[in-house]
Amino acid sequence: MPIDHNDFYIGGARVAPATAHRIEVRAAGTGEVAGSVPEAHPADVDAAVAAARTAFDDPSGWRTWSAQDRAETLDRFAAALTERGPETARLVSLQNGMPISLASVLEGVGPAALLRYYAAVGAAKTADDRRPGLFGGHTVVVPEPVGVVAAIVPWNVPQGITFMKVAPALAAGCAVVLKPSPETVLDAYQVGAAAEAAGLPAGLLNIVPGGAETGRYLVGHPGVDKVSFTGSTAVGRSIAETCGRLLRPVSLELGGKSAAVVLDDADLGAVMDRFFRATLLNNGQVCWLGTRVLAPRSRYAELVDAVTGMARSLKVGDPLDPATQLGPLVSERQRDRVESYIAKGVSDGARLTTGGGRPAGADRGWYVEATVFADVDNRSAIAQEEIFGPVLSVIPYTDEEQALAIANDSDYGLGGSVWTTDSDRGLAFARRMQAGSVGVNGYANDPVAPFGGRKASGLGYELGPEGLAQYQALKSIYVDQQV
Ligand code: NAD
Questions:
Q1: For residue 107, which of 93, 89, 124 has the smallest C-alpha distance?
Q2: Domains of the chain with bracketed CATH
């Protein structure tokens, strides 16, 4: 039964849409209609921004609450999300094909964990930052909430990414207008319901589902103070241009083409499950995955076999089946895009060792086999462009210096990993990689540490206390000596 919604969560209430336009969502595993929601048009975005403005500008409102009081409300919001966690995870899996075993954690549990983490980070800082002056007097440095935040998120990890923005923004004292991606809108209604149930003050969170037009209108809206975007580099650039013109603060978490560097002492077989998660998680639809696998020539054939064997061993199936490791891609468009990259790899002369087609029996849904190319030239399209599907390129290198040069020879600089039995050697290599986050013998963007991209992978940080700072503006109050 399709799930249909007929309103927006704006100003703490269910509000009727301004137009009759709707978004239809399809189930990734079957291609069938999963549900529909109204599409937000400018009048709806105006209403959402106005509600956020009213909540933020209220002289005794959320931003004036103590961080401890805000933390209590955020904890209630977290509890309401936790209650809905299993259904939220199911909806994400249904829409974007994320294996349910992963969605249960990232999408079912992650959002509440992020809210609790940021509630605690916000509440931990109590004392004034009072700095004695160089020439007398002193200055008090006060972090203030930046204002109304436009949060624009993609479909690949919709809930986790939403709360990488919403949790620190609310903890900082901001109000948010959230625009989910049209591919994953049903889960966003769980967020509105949880906020309502938790008694989140009206207008602090407003949700406007829509596509590029809705996003563009929101980014340039005069009532917005800060934009936080996660998505493709192309869209990120255009948002940055708009924000540049408006001198509007913006954080951008964009695409990646990270390297998984296997050093010559690695025992990949012992950590293959972690290697899978660092390279093919979520059907290859994660921005930080190490999709360029760098392997030493001294062990090249053996490592190509190991990676090929791992890809062949994955259990492909219904994303809602807990045993599934590789589900479908989010949409027909994404499946076509991935298939066109596979064709390009073949025509550019890379050697296909497994995959390349659609899994046997997958006569519906947007499935692509886990695909491995060997003998890939790092300058070729499949090694330089983000494919965002289950496609790995194994690239040979001669020595560590060459491995480093290849790893860093990318327009992107988001994630990466190093595989070695000597973790000191791994750490030393990781320090030299041009990337915002690197894993040694595994990869995790742990919420306690900043996550952000270098080069074409973005600007600014999410997660960690640094993620809270993205939603704060600093004010220095100089106090002179009494005369
Ligand atoms: P996308 O850029 O097409 O869309 C992202 C969001 O922006 C969607 O909500 C979309 O509706 C909206 N949008 C599209 N055009 C817009 C415009 N002109 N103005 C404002 N909003 C607009 O990306 P996608 O296909 O949804 O997601 C996949 C991309 O996201 C990949 O490139 C991936 O690497 C990236 N991503 C990055 C991170 C990160 O943290 N660095 C995390 C996840 C995904």
A1: 89
A2: 3-254+457-477 (3.40.605.10), 259-445 (3.40.309.10)
